[in-house]
Amino acid sequence: MTVRRATADDATAMESLLLAEAPHITLSTDGAGAEPVLASMRADALARNMESGRFCYWVFTEPTDHALRGLIGLREGTHLYQLFVRSGWHRQGVGRTLWLYMLSDWPSQWSRPEHITVNASPYGLPAYKALGFVPTGPRAETNGIAFVPMRCVLNHH
Question: pLDDT (tens digit, 9 = 90+) per residue, 26-77?
Fold first, then answer.
């Protein structure tokens, strides 16, 4: 496996993974009502995010075929914006590997916060709990997606 920081050259492959996995977060399997969220998963939006300096992404690829197996995105050093793993690779440590790599490769433009927040899909709740996140509020539904706000206190050793 290879984990590295994503670049704009990865945006098309990132879009493919995100849109393939989007039914895990949308209320409707066809994405109806979630158009703004789905638009944020498009290659041009991802590239703009990276260029803005407000986001940093990391990707998990397999060295044999260089296929994207997962990605993690951090917004402004305080919010886990996206953590997606390709179906067929769930529950194999890809998400945890991305999370730990992100924590070890902290972007220099951001100070390390006391905690990181995430809006976890109901599907992803067990994975986020396994990473140390705890719910901070009830399930919400907006813009065609459901989520539970969560927070993880970071250890500063």
Answer: 999 899 999 999 999 999 999 999 999 999 999 999 877 778 999 999 999 9
H runs (alpha helix) in 2-110: 11-21, 35-39, 43-52, 94-104
The answer to whether 73 and 40 are in contact (CB under 8 A) is no
Contacts of residue 127, Cβ cutoff 8 Å, sequence gap at least 6 = 83, 95
Rg (CA), the chain: 15
Provide the strand spans (E) within the chain.
2-5, 55-61, 68-75, 79-85, 115-120, 134-135, 140-142, 145-153
Tokens representing 60 are 């998990």
- For the beta carbon of residue 110, count every other beta carbon within 10 angstroms: 15
Q: For the whole model, what pTM was predicted?
A: 0.93
CB 74 within 8 A of CB 6: no
| pLDDT(142) > 60 | yes
